[in-house]
Design goal:
alpha+beta, five-stranded mixed barrel, Trna Endonuclease, Chain: A, domain 1, seven-stranded mixed beta sheet, 15% helix, OB fold (Dihydrolipoamide Acetyltransferase, E2P)
Length: 218
């Protein structure tokens, strides 16, 4: 287990409801308030009434910014803005990335913008917070954008990194939720596109990399 970075000065609250994708109503120190959710996923199994939350002070229009939710005896990061920082740290410690010299972010590629260019190899990064029967699944909502990203990675001989935020024993695409994405990811695997799954742990303050998650059957 290797520490990646720290998220300081978090406070705990409880979840009430989610009126839209980006806003949560919460209860903090006995009072109702609102907080920003920076995660486009549905998170239905995580954001349930009275779920414990960790928040930072908001930097925009809302007073709070949710960082993590407590579920199944662990803190789970649900701030997708952290993914770039996590990926950048992983590039320095995972063997798959040790030979790359130059890292650039948010690079136009085909009809998309890809998260990273490692030397001349494109890499797309996805965060995973859905786990069923110990299997990490992506996506938790249909994603035409995600399918398009995989198509670009296939076309330009790239790599895919899944950052898994909950304890899991394997990873697979969520076929029931998005058959099109799942088929495209299967095509990528069958064409030897590197699909790398990194397990992340958050203890409420520190973010750790705990190892690789193997691919399941798909």
């Amino acid at each position: 287990m290797k520490k990646l970075f720290e998220i300081p000065d978090l406070v705990e609250s409880s979840f009430l409801n989610r009126p839209n994708r980006f806003v949560a109503e919460i209860k903090y120190e006995g009072r109702h308030s609102i907080a920003h959710i920076h995660d486009p996923g549905r998170l239905r199994e995580l954001l349930i009434p009275d779920a414990r939350l960790l928040m930072a002070k908001g930097t925009g229009k809302l007073p709070w910014y949710i960082k993590a939710v407590y579920h199944s005896n662990e803190w789970i990061l649900i701030d997708s803005a952290l993914q770039r920082n996590i990926a950048t740290k992983l590039f320095t410690i995972m063997d798959e990335f040790k030979d790359f010299q130059e890292i650039r972010a948010e690079i136009p590629l085909g009809n998309s913008r890809i998260d990273f260019m490692l030397d001349e190899v494109p890499l797309e990064c996805k965060g995973v917070s859905l786990v069923k029967e110990d299997v990490a699944l992506f996506p938790d909502a249909p994603t035409k954008r995600g399918t398009r990203h995989v198509e670009e990675i296939l076309k330009y001989n790239g790599m895919i990194l899944f950052i898994i935020f909950r304890s899991s024993t394997s990873f697979a695409p969520n076929i029931r939720m998005d058959p099109e994405f799942s088929e495209k990811l299967k095509e990528a695997r069958n064409n030897n596109v590197p699909i790398i799954c990194a397990q992340i742990k958050f203890d409420g303050k520190n973010v750790y990399y705990t190892g690789r998650v193997p691919l399941g059957e798909f």
